[in-house]
Amino acid sequence: MGYCSWFLLSCFLWSFLNPGTHQLQSSQTQVLLQLRKHLEYPNQLEFWNNHGMDLCYLSPSTQVNMTCQDNVVTELRMVGDKPAMVNSFVGFAITSQTLSGNFSMDSFVTTLARLTSLRVLSLVSLGIWGPLPDKIHRLSTLEYLDLSSNYLFGSIPPKISTMVKLQTLNLDDNFFNDTIPDWFDSLSNLTILSLRNNQLKGPFPSSIQRVASLTDLILSGNDISGKLPNLDRLSKLNMLDLSEKQFRF
Ligand SMILES: *[C@@H]1O[C@H](CO)[C@@H](O)[C@H](O)[C@H]1NC(C)=O
Ligand SMILES: *[C@@H]1O[C@H](CO)[C@@H](O)[C@H](O)[C@H]1NC(C)=O
Ligand SMILES: *[C@@H]1O[C@H](CO)[C@@H](O)[C@H](O)[C@H]1NC(C)=O
Ligand SMILES: *[C@@H]1O[C@H](CO)[C@@H](O)[C@H](O)[C@H]1NC(C)=O
After folding, report:
1. Residue 201 and residue 180 in contact, taking contact as beta carbons nearer than 8 Å
2. Which residues contact 200 (CB under 8 A, 6 or more apart)?
3. Maximal CA-CA distance, the chain
4. Which region is the signal sequence (predicted)?
5. What are the residue ranges of helices labelled H in 71-230?
6. Does ligand 2 lie within 6 Å of residue 177's CB atom?
7. d(CA 137, CA 232)
């Protein structure tokens, strides 16, 4: 009891006396530690611990980068060593390829959504598996979302259409296997849309012709059918890849 109140008092005094410091909010640190647990303590996060170090000041590496502003995390980038290297995936954990059967994509995203100021989120080759839940849209400040090379399947959640700040959406090399969505015209600042190597089906989404900001459109390696609409209005388009299904590996 004595220790506790002394601790709280010193924290209070510390924050009171240091209004200008940029210590990461402890609630944000807790979220990061939770994420580390969800990701089953990958090696690249071994420096994330609860020993009072400000996680914002860890030096960037090829595997993890984080940027903070005003005591909150604004950018989080991680690359793991579990690329989506299988041709068939039936929606269950695969030993040493995906995270374990204990991983829950739903609670992972619930935790992520507590990083309410994120602008950049890139989680690549981490063995993340499951359907991508609709609540991903709670990350409404995101401008850049890259979840490539994981084991996500099912549909691309319709609520992503409400994430109007998105400029880059990259879901390459996953197992999305529903029809390709047709709400891309809700994302008026979208410049890069990349859905390469999934199992998306159905007609080419005609909403894409109205996303005038697009510079890169990559839909190759899916089962998209039908006629290509007129893309003349996409005057900034720089890269268009609609090639057929390739064998991935
Ligand atoms: C982190 O940033 C460095 C330098 O900007 C870059 O070389 C590295 O690839 C980044 N790592 C990730 C995981 O994005
Ligand atoms: C998508 O893949 C999952 C996992 O393999 C499977 O359970 C589901 O039935 C598939 N859905 C469609 C529409 O093919
Ligand atoms: C999954 O969770 C159970 C119960 O919490 C635990 O005993 C087991 O070790 C966990 N498995 C892995 C691979 O983390
Ligand atoms: C789209 O980008 C413009 C220019 O960068 C910006 O002013 C605007 O706020 C953005 N729109 C949204 C919905 O974020």
Report:
1. yes
2. 156, 176, 177, 178, 179, 180, 219, 222, 223, 224
3. 73
4. 1-23
5. 105-112
6. yes
7. 30
* Nearest atom (ligand 2) to Cα of 177: 1
Ligand 2 binding pocket mutation candidate from 150, 177, 178 (most atoms within 8 A of CB) = 177
What pTM does this model have?
0.89
Answer whether 67 contacts ligand 1 (Cβ < 6 A).
no
Over residues 56-83, the pLDDT tens digits come to 888 889 999 999 999 999 999 999 999 8
Which residues contact residue 121 at a Cβ distance below 8 angstroms, ignoring those fewer than 6 apart? 75, 76, 77, 112, 139, 142, 144, 145, 146
Nearest-CA residue for atom 4 of ligand 2: 91
Token pair for 122: 């890139």
Output the CA 120–ligand 4 centroid distance in Å.
Answer: 15
Contacts of 61 (CB under 8 A, 6+ apart): 44
Q: Where are the beta strands (DSSP E) in 33-136?
A: 64-69, 72-82, 120-126, 129-131
Each residue's pLDDT tens digit, 8-34: 555 444 444 444 446 788 899 999 999
Q: Where are the alpha helices (DSSP H) in 18-151?
A: 26-38, 105-112
